[in-house]
Amino acid sequence: MLLAIVLMIVGLFLLVYAADRLVYGASVLASSIGIPPLIIGMTVVGVGISLPELVVSTTAALNGQMDLAVGNVIGSNITNILLILGGAALIHPLSVRSDILRRELPLMLIVTVLCGFLLSDSELSRLDGVILIAAAAIFLMLMVKIAKMSQHVGQDTLTREQMAELPQDGSNTVAFLWLALGFIIMPLASNMIVDNASVMARFFGVSELVIGLTVVAIGTSLPELATFIAGALKGEDDIALGNIIGANIFNMCLVLGLPALVAPGHFNPDAFHRDYWVMLVVSVILTGLCLMRKHRIGHLAGALLLCGFIAYLGVLFFVPDSITFFNR
């Protein structure tokens, strides 16, 4: 069991590192062929944050472990809001200045409702995959359009912070090497995670869904945590929040969509009847916090979000029949 835990941790760190290097390589190459920094920031970097979840969920689905795939998505979204955002706001209050962010939030809620509709039958079909991937493409196009419109009236804080974080130099040769290394490491690391997640589930006597919602979800959310901490320390609150909102949208669209497309199948109904509704509620709470009159997420909100995450873990691990608990 100790070996499984060690291999899981090693796999998670390798996955996160490979995803970061892959995004770096893709950004350098995109810049070298003349793609505007705004487009790179909204697409390559935006999708790149969800790469660990995408690779793990797709690998799990291909192995017939759809519970792990779905749990990873829902758990990552809950973790991003309750643990990462809540913990950060408890330490450092966050201000929302970007108009783009305030336009992203309703889109996140729309995607969350769409996701719930598709999950309600406890099955992900190829048609569901097509719908979700199409939603991801529409979201990308809308965000690029909104970002371009914001530039006409003065650069939005989010786009300014995003472009400042893009790699400013780098050779194409090095970029290609990082891309190749990323594509080699990521599948290997994801297999390590998926295989050892099953070992842990059997050892602790919990379902693969719960392991996906907790251990795997927290691990694959490390890029969001890293970018959030970096952004908050630099006073770039908008990019920190924008990465979480964007990651949650891409998780629901791409990270659910691709597994459904390549390996459709059924999953544990608990994922919809219990965990989806937690994800929806915390998404609504995040929207309310960001759209409040002061556009500020303070210490109290952070503490409440963090307490919510602890309570959710308590229900998953210590309430014997959590579905009955949630449906009372």
From TrEMBL:
Coiled coil: none annotated. InterPro entries: K/Na/Ca-exchanger, NaCa_Exmemb, NCX_ion-bd_dom_sf. It is found in: Membrane. It comes from the Bacteria. Pfam families: Na_Ca_ex. PANTHER family: INNER MEMBRANE PROTEIN YRBG (PTHR10846:SF8), SODIUM/POTASSIUM/CALCIUM EXCHANGER (PTHR10846). This is Calcium/sodium antiporter. It comes from Rouxiella silvae.
